[in-house]
Amino acid sequence: MRQIQLEKESKTGASIIVATVEGRLVKSPKTKEMGKMPNNDYDIQELLQRDVYVNDTKVGVIVGERHHPNEARVRSMRIMVEPDVADEFMRKPAELAPLHKELIHSIRNDGSVKLSKSMRELQRRWRNTVRIDEKLYAPDEMMDRAVLDNQGMEIGVITDLVKIKRTYRAVVVKTRIGVQMQYGIDSTINIPITALARTRERLDEVVLSRTLDKLLGLPSYIQANDPDAIIEE
């Protein structure tokens, strides 16, 4: 099967990679009717740039999804959220946020996407996210991302997240052997969420706000790696 990649540009100028696989979807005659297709039959290309609604409330517009070689890991799409919805249903408004694929109910006759849950369910899921550069990311969108310092050195790969009092405080990073030897760090370290400056969607990476050497001296890093200070939920 041939993989196709399309790069979309959000209003903020951030690149969003849309990855699809040609021929991946096979729809039976019963599922071709508009509004009758189960959510697992939708390809991102069918949903791109469609408005998303909960009842009569417009939530936003689908703008892409994470680029990951293992499609089973891509459980969320990216949506540009309506400002009034962000103001009301987010702790702190964000323009871009995840939309879990399992919430998609159908495509309505007018072409918009209908969600199966309420706004309160969206609110609950948006609270269970990581905020990076004023954008929200679902936990599944963080897993397996490479972590680089601000000089481009790859530190390792995210394998888990640390949650304290219902808020994600750090990512667990499996470090590269060369980095372990050079900096004397463990095979896994916790990097505070506050140290993550931005994501690079094309390469599925997270970039720190500083060098690794400076990160290791931060009080927040020291606390995040103190077993007595972290109680995971």
How does this structure look, described?
With 233 residues, the chain is of the alpha+beta class. It folds into two domains: 3-140, SH3 type barrels (Roll); 143-224, PRC-barrel domain (SH3 type barrels, Roll), CATH 2.30.30. The protein has seven helices and 16 strands. It has helices spanning 44-47, 83-89, 119-127, 139-142, 177-183, 212-215, 219-224; strands at 3-9, 15-21, 51-54, 57-65, 76-81, 96-100, 104-107, 113-115, 130-132, 135-137, 146-148, 154-164, 167-175, 188-192, 196-200, 205-208. The protein has a six-stranded mixed sheet with strand order 6-5-4-3-8-7. Strands 14-13-12-11-16-15 form a six-stranded mixed sheet. A two-stranded antiparallel sheet has the order 1-2. Strand 15 (196-200) and strand 16 (205-208) form a beta hairpin. The longest helix has 9 residues, at 119-127. The model is unreliable at 1-39 (pLDDT under 50).
Question: What is the helix content?
Answer: 10-25%
Order of helices and strands: EEHEEEHEEEHEEHEEEHEEEHH
Rounded to an integer, what's the Rg over CA atoms? 19 Å
CATH class of the largest domain: Mainly Beta
Q: Give the CA-CA distance, first to last residue.
A: 41 Å
Strand order of the largest sheet: 6-5-4-3-8-7
How much beta, percentage-wise? 35-45%
Count of separate DSSP helical elements: 7
